[in-house]
Amino acid sequence: MSGSSTSSGVLSHKKRQTLTRLSALSLVPMLPTQVLASAIHALPRAALIIGNSAYPDSPLTNPVNDANAIAGELKRLGFSVDLQINAGHATMNEAVHNFGTNLTRSRAVGLFYFAGHGLQLDWRNFLVPVDVRLDQADDVPRQTVDLGNLLNSLGRAGNAMNIVVLDACRDNPFGSEHKTGRGLSQMDAPISTLLAYATAPGNVASDGTGKNGLYTENFLKEMVAPEARIEDVFKRVRLAVRRSSQGQQIPWESTSLEEDFYFIPPAEMRKRSQDELDRLFAQELAQWESARKANEPGPLVAYLRAYPSGQFSELAQTTLDQLLAKQGERKISIANTEKNPFTKGTASAGEFRVGDRYLYRVIDLLTGIQSREFTRVVTEITDNEVIFNKGAEITDILGNPRKLANGRILGPNQTYASEYSLGKTWSTRFETTYPDGTTSVIEREFKVVAKEAITVPAGTFDTFRIESFGRRLGFSTRIEHTYWMAPGKIARHIAYNAMERRRNFSFVNTERFELVSFTPGS
């Protein structure tokens, strides 16, 4: 675990001072995202591409084709490319070493791509050269390239960003006697890295029957889409591969990138005006509402292609999952990572059940004084909503609030995500209508920043910690929320810190919600 949190109910004087300083700092203007992106795209670009097909006992059809195609496209996109075809162990090690040295010297944005056989052993991942001869499990680390060592080498280079793409999740050709797992093992991306697999950890991908493998075929299409953020490129690839394979192959990514990267950047990096943002949001909201009401996959897929990281993408993904499951898709799942030391894991949002009973207490973050307790009981569940206390409170199936007990009505929002993993980010924008008829628009950004144990009156839970920052448009109100989720255990939050302050630093809200008890429904 990366840390722990306990529930004392009272913030110490030192913690209150720190909280106040951090809140004040959060109002200081940050370096604009477009400036950071411009700086990234002023850097050189370098790639190492390896395609291994000619395995003596288990040849593959497409990796050489895939590597040649990726190398050609990257050259057209301004990358200097080292292309290695059917590389043996010594050649792969030398190429990786030279690549790290090049990145150290040039500080280039780095991209590593491997197509071929890959395998996992004891939670470690290995990329397989064409001259491998595996007679026993001990041969694996000696004769292959350890992905962990490769990532460490890239990390030591000190360059701004690395992208690692592995189309290496084929069936293990070396026999079960070597005790290697299926596919690749899950790993959390090191700092300033995006790590992409052709399919979910613990699963295998087909080599394909066409000119390119299914994953690389779609990667080639999406990487040349103008003005597409790197995360959106891979989200579109994931969607396309899933639909083409009917859910039997779903690519996976882990990211720790702090800046945007574009294969083809916008001609001009600029900050949009509020009027422009409002207009674009209205267009997105209209497409989401249309997709939601259509009750079929096509419009949802179209929305997710148009807005891979949209204000409703978590909701769209969940709705698509539901519809495809009803149509018979047997979606693959990520292998269990409970004992894996190289990842904090990935967990899907929890499921509500009729009869679930949650008791919370509310504490003032500054004084530590408990103000009240309240109970929420799931009394009904529909296809789209979870109804608490016979309608006093209503959420969507992820737990995102739509009606609060105090009478507020919230538009479609994604405070809670469809799944959680370290480094995941998302955003939301929605309108709140108050009992007196007035409205406000809220914008928030979220990031999963840690996996940690937290102790509340209900017990100790292994949780994902999510930090959120945002604003209430037109009110100069800064929103700073932190919450802890234990998906798979409890569908609602374990604890929730809600801080809101005005520009003059006066507090609007300083509440902490803690789970006192939970009784599952039947």
UniProtKB/TrEMBL annotation:
Pfam families: Peptidase_C14. GO terms for biological process: proteolysis. PROSITE patterns: CASPASE_P20. It comes from the Bacteria. This is Caspase family protein. Residues 66-173 form the Caspase family p20 domain. One of its GO terms (molecular function) is cysteine-type endopeptidase activity. It comes from Candidatus Dechloromonas phosphorivorans. Transmembrane segments: none annotated.
